[in-house]
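Tokens for phosphoenolpyruvate--protein phosphotransferase. Go.
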Amino acid sequence: MMIEVELGAPLAGWVIPLEKIPDPVFAQGMVGDGLAIEPIGDMLHAPCAGTISSVHAARHAVTLALAEGVELLMHIGIDSVGMAGRGFEALVSPGARVAAGDPLVRFDLDQLALRASAAATPIIVTGPGVDILARHTGGMVAVGETVLRIGARAAANGIARPQAAAGEARRHEAVVALAHGLHARPAARIATALRELRAEVFLESGDQRASAASSIAMLGLGLRHGAPVTIVAHGADAGEAITRVLAVLQHDTDVPAATVAPSRSIVPEGAIGGVGAAPGLAIGPACWLRTNRPAPTRLGAGVMTERSNLVQGIGMVWAELEAESQGEGQAADVFTAHRAILEDPSLIDAALARIDSGESAAFAILSAAEAQAGILRASGDARIAERGADLVDVGERIAHAILGTRANMIMPPEGAILLADDLLPSQFAALDTDRIAGIALARGGPTAHVAILAAGIGLPMIVALGTPLEAVAEGASLLIDCDSGFVRVDPDAHAREGLAAARARRAAVEARARTIGAAAVHTADGISVSVQANCGSVADAQAAMAAGADGCGLLRTEFLFLGRAAAPDIGEQRATYRAIFEALPERPITVRLLDVGGDKPAPYLSLPAEENPALGLRGIRVALSRPEILEAQLSAILGLPVPGPLRIMVPMVASAHEMAAVRAVLDRLRGDTAVALGAMVETPAAAIGADLIAAEADFLSIGSNDLTQYALAADRGNAAVAAMLDGLHPGVLRLIAETCTRAGSTPVSVCGGLAADPMAAPILIGLGVRTLSVPPAQVALTKALVTTLTVTAAASHARQALACASAAEVRALARRFAEELSA
């Protein structure tokens, strides 16, 4: 008999599909079907009546058994098992009977957002004969609002008393070696590993037995680290089944991604692996950044009072941001972006709606900011996710302003390494960066605003170190190697000697750099290499000129188009471009056409919602679909007196016909203006088809960041594959080699992150790249590096790199090359 059950939302928040969860186990349905909710509250409720099957030892996951054998898994956050129960309070116990809406778990949403890789909470339904008849299509839901309607036939519960199995069974005693016990991810992997085998498998613990075909049933056993368990299997493949279960239970390869730093190189034994966000090496005492977050009460003092409080708080922060954005440099650009957040009505409207429901203004703005940040984190794109920190930053500033409080900032000792879980842009701006030697973060990303700020002032920063960083004691000696991507606690004499040698090499390079200035550079065997700068503002252009850049190899123009209600007109664009051109007299300038869509949406373009924006309407595809935007930008650029050679670059080119379409518009508008048209190589198709694209282009420029992501099919927003994302992967290097070879006489430059990587630059030159475009702060050092190379040695080094098996091997090879070069 089929029955239907309606499931109410166990949390208030935003409904998102499972495939948007940044975890393949849930996204690919390995645990079961359902949906997820990005929470805005702090309580998990029962979605319907049932019996509690299990509460995980870390209290982040609850299973609920329904009538007719259906089971629900509610898993608060992704990788939250690594929080080891901190911030979670279970309000029910296994065996308890609950009604719809009953509270199950209270949790600290702030801690969840900070410590888990995502706050999104999967709601999974499983059981034989269970079908999802209807599901919520997305958007905000309140607790109890229907999100799923399921149909179920009678079925046996997945957990039962041991029963005699048909045929002879094989038994194997084991111990759970998983650091966090048998939680959702390894349980799903066991079930998946057994799916193709001819075997029936159970796990037994005490007087309970769970089918290994059901990940939820296995969760009900509550197996912690070190717990004894018996694997029972019968059938033709019983022996293989036991081997596969043991492979999961006894080899902790599934430590949550939030606790494992993605490493871009071979991490020395005893070190903590991370991702270099701003280059450099440093050693000093560890100093933890402890700040007080706003702590408002939930209930307000009345709607009118709280609305007034919100308006006043916004006004105070607006004035602060207006002052902070008046300066020059990247910090001013960041706070200009924060002003744009305040201009976005969606954040304020969400806060006002919460005030109207009875919340205080400070609580409402914090919750609204966190909810929107959570949506960005669940996007699956690292750059979008990292913008969530900016939303939280603005929300906290407004809340502090309403409460009349300030974030307490410590005064680190001279030469300290600053440690934090994550760092907000306003916190970075408040630091006395002259006092600190470097920064190490448990979370964060290499494209976050704080990483950009640190790189801009030459402050070494390493991110994504994970929970192992928490074990570092205040005052402990800490060595950070942001070039190789690791942190070493209490380094021994050998490690200190290695640091001293690396510092000596860097000092020698910096000394040479200071003598070069604006002079053109060539390799030691006489081959000219142009070192240009990536710019996104007048301040960047001024910094590039001061650093001796040979020109601007990448002028980003999207800063003019984002964070506003309408596109800039020709006059506004022209005024901005003129100021940047004038800051780089007699230097070649490469202007990249508008690159929006995907990770950089512009609301006024009304681009359609896409399941995978990175593979959708972005880059030149947007401009060709909106010809008025393309023509206005080209007209603004071409209508200016250019003090040096002018080049226009087309983003995200995949085929020659796109270049032909842009050239047709350019030729119609250019008049007598001399201008070169180039294509960005950011996709494997563009690299392999470089000869075809070169026929329509005057130059090619490799955007190594996107080329790496697309070539390796690895999204930095997905913690499960983040460690793969290294531009020195042999596959990426081979695409760059193909680009240089197929381009023939068409010049090839690199303007992505690889150009500024001292481990990568010699390989790029060896492959045939003759122009490197880097952040202004890296210009002098890159010029100095070029003068130490010979193209002959670089080409031999590049051939060896192409033959390596992994990015780690390439980086090891590159370190040896650098040491030999400086010997």
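The chain is about 35% helix and 20% strand.
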